[in-house]
Amino acid sequence: MSAPVPSSPPSDRVPLSRDRVLASAVAVADAQGLSGLTIRSLAGDLGVKPMSVYHHVANKEEILDGIVDAVFGEMEVPSDQGEWRAEMTRRARSARAALRRHPWAIGLMESRTNPGPATLRHHDASIGMLRAGGFSVVLTAHALALVDSYVYGFALQETGLPFEGADTAAEVAGTMLEQFATGQYPHLVELAEQHVMRPGYDFGDEFGFGLELILDGLAAARQ
Amino acid sequence: MSAPVPSSPPSDRVPLSRDRVLASAVAVADAQGLSGLTIRSLAGDLGVKPMSVYHHVANKEEILDGIVDAVFGEMEVPSDQGEWRAEMTRRARSARAALRRHPWAIGLMESRTNPGPATLRHHDASIGMLRAGGFSVVLTAHALALVDSYVYGFALQETGLPFEGADTAAEVAGTMLEQFATGQYPHLVELAEQHVMRPGYDFGDEFGFGLELILDGLAAARQ
DNA sequence: TAGCACCCCCGTACTTTGTACGGTACGGTC
DNA sequence: GACCGTACCGTACAAAGTACGGGGGTGCTA
């Protein structure tokens, strides 16, 4: 733990830039969580002293805005050439994947009211695709609000889950089981025993069910 | 601004308690935002010195867990006596209302993996209600994941909106319009001009559309 | 009624974090 | 060679979480 370990190879001559700062910020947040992202840890990752960062961003808020926009930049941008339902599926799945790679982004979205260029581009393309797919202006607004709510909310629940895989589940079970043991939550216990705790269950698999249901509904509304 | 102004009336003899701490924490977060909720501001609101708080909670994390659970406690608990669709509607609307009253809760949910008693009770009752309404165990899991994703995601978008009412919209418009003016986001502009910027538009109204669509889909799946 | 235990609260101080302020080194231009 | 802008750094301070060690009031026991 003596020398800082930059996430990017020590190609030392690269002179730092807003983009390098944001890329490092994403990497640090991925590795240490949002609370681990401090100006000092970020500078350490960049192989630079803390105050140097401030020559490329105004303050930490701007960094937070920037990394949220970076996450939007990782989502696939829909094309208005494709069939709307396939495009929406692709869009939703890649959005969920991006939010899974960067779970801290969800918590940040509430509080950032400053959409960046990638965010705007993403939304613009989505609207264009639906309009090209025959959706009215009003129905486009409905559809995007609905699908995005579902995607963000699903990601929120997914990252807020008490367990990651089967490995940590036991520990959590210990914490909660004392409460369950009192018999106060019979339905929760039933659902856990008969479904969630069964081998092979993965909350992530619920995503497809809801997405299809929603797209079915939108297809019907489009008529 | 000399004396601290407690949010609760200065009924001074009440001796502080975990519940009073959490209630004040909710009030402070509502008033100042989550970043305004510090041990010192909380103590100030309680009319007490900072370290006194630590006799009732272990640390700030526990406060954050506690206020999230408090928000869940404000949501109406579904009854397994009622008709499932009406109960789900009531549940979803009251959840959204609670998250609107306490926008900071959404950002907190990601990061809190420690559900409190109100949260567990809420989920338990919801499961029981759906089971009583004829949903299979598997479909119950699907339905809750779907509806909750929608509700949380909608709330997330709602609080992340760049404007509150028509009042601040102008300011935001100024910030973004320079980007819009470049013509990079034609579809966004169309949607804004023809729909969102029209008098009477309220993003909150989108909620009902998606909820009904989802419940229609679940009703069909239940057969 | 004197003594005592205990619960609740507080004063002080240390650590971590964001960031203001003023350098300093280096490359280019007149 | 004098000047200057760009990029980075050293120092320092304020705000926030919280460890540690009291102290004062209330009620119990003798």
Automatic annotation (TrEMBL), chains A, B:
PROSITE patterns: HTH_TETR_2. The keyword Transcription regulation applies. Residues 15-75 form the HTH tetR-type domain. The keyword Transcription regulation applies. Residues 38-57 bind DNA. InterPro entries: Homeodomain-like_sf, HTH-type_TetR-like_transc_reg, HTH_TetR, Repressor_TetR_C, Tet_transcr_reg_TetR, Tet_transcr_reg_TetR-rel_C_sf. Keywords: DNA-binding, Repressor, Transcription, Transcription regulation. GO terms for biological process: negative regulation of DNA-templated transcription; response to antibiotic. One of its GO terms (molecular function) is DNA-binding transcription factor activity. PANTHER family: HTH-TYPE TRANSCRIPTIONAL REGULATOR RUTR, TRANSCRIPTIONAL REGULATORY PROTEIN. This is Transcriptional regulator, TetR family. The lineage of its organism: Bacteria, Bacillati, Actinomycetota, Actinomycetes, Propionibacteriales.
